[in-house]
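Sequence design from tokenized structure. All designs in this work follow the same two-part layout: the structure record, then the generated sequence. An example of the structure record is given first.
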């Protein structure tokens, strides 16, 4: 079920209601599916014409949307239930089993030595470039994710959930560091995590916890058409857009926010069942897809290579389905059962339907 934004004149001042009693937001599934499809397209297809550099645009766009969603959902989860131990158990159970299993398998296939395994198992390959490989280089994003989990969990443990209201300031600080470093795009956590922190900011706006600033941001996302936000975001993802790339985290978040805070025709499209399914298997799709272009499936030049891509896509989806429902769910279900007994949800003001 998708969210429904208030239709009264003071919509910009009233947090949108949770879409369902479970807090599930169908529109976010749509964006998650789009994010992984953009990444798959970037890595597996020739998005042409080549002169437009669409492959170099699709990848950053997909990752920025994914990070926004991650920040939003993690903040929303911790705001409802600031039990940090349960949070860490569930996040580790969600990320680590497939990350360890896949990286171990990929590295063994390539005959790599032990020093390659440790950075992948401990998720710091985005700072250890010498020990990444062609089919594990994308693990950098898992590193950014896990580093963010460690940070926000520690923040809530030390300050309580109210400490999260400091994150928008931190996001600006990270962006400032990117500007000072000339890092329009980077895989190191301290030069990329603003894409997740802006998602946290969106959650705080949604929850109504940023006061006048939050109301201003809400008004901007509601009054500017979603199509405009999408065009600006796409431009910020293009490698030739110069300084506009520094705004990519904020424009990507505005795209998601503009569809989250109001109901449009796009809301229904983002909530369709095929996108929901793709969203559900998206983590496995991301982790597995480079391996399906390894060896014979990735050999050849030009048309010969890309004629094999349907096989790679099909294999990626089959393996992702088996991984999600036959492997990963065992760990996430276990973590859910383990943490249910610890659950001490906190009712957040102004977030009831």
């Amino acid at each position: 079920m998708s969210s429904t934004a208030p239709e009264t004149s003071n919509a910009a001042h009233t947090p949108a209601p949770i879409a369902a009693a479970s807090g599930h937001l169908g529109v976010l599934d749509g964006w998650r599916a789009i994010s992984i499809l953009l990444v798959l397209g970037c890595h597996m297809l020739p998005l042409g014409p080549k002169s437009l550099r669409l492959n170099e645009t699709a990848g950053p766009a997909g990752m920025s949307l994914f990070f926004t969603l991650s920040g939003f959902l993690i903040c929303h989860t911790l705001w409802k239930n600031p039990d940090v131990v349960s949070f860490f158990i569930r996040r580790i159970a969600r990320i680590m089993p497939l990350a360890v299993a896949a990286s171990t398998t990929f590295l063994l296939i390539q005959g790599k030595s032990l020093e390659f395994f440790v950075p992948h198992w401990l998720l710091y390959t985005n700072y250890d470039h010498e020990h990444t490989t062609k089919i594990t280089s994308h693990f950098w994003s898992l590193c950014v994710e896990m580093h963010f989990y460690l940070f926000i969990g520690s923040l809530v443990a030390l300050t309580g959930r109210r400490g999260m209201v400091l994150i928008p300031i931190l996001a600006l600080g990270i962006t400032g560091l990117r500007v000072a470093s000339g890092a329009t795009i980077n895989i190191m956590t301290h030069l990329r995590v603003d894409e997740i922190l802006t998602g946290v900011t969106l959650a705080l706006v949604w929850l109504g916890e940023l006061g006048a600033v939050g109301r201003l941001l809400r008004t901007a996302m509601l009054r500017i058409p979603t199509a405009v936000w999408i065009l600006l975001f796409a431009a910020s993802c293009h490698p030739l857009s110069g300084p506009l790339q520094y705004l990519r985290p904020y424009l990507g978040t505005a795209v998601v926010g503009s569809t989250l805070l109001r109901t449009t025709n796009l809301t229904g499209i983002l909530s369709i069942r095929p996108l929901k399914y793709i969203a559900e298997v998206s983590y496995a799709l991301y982790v597995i897809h480079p391996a399906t272009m390894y060896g014979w499936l990735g050999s050849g030049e030009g048309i010969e290579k890309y004629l094999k891509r349907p096989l790679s896509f099909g294999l990626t989806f089959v393996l992702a389905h088996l991984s999600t429902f036959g492997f990963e769910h065992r760990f996430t279900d276990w973590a859910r059962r383990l943490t249910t007994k610890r659950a001490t949800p906190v009712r957040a003001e102004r977030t009831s339907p």
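The longest helix spans residues 309-340. We note this feature because it recurs in several other targets discussed in the main text.
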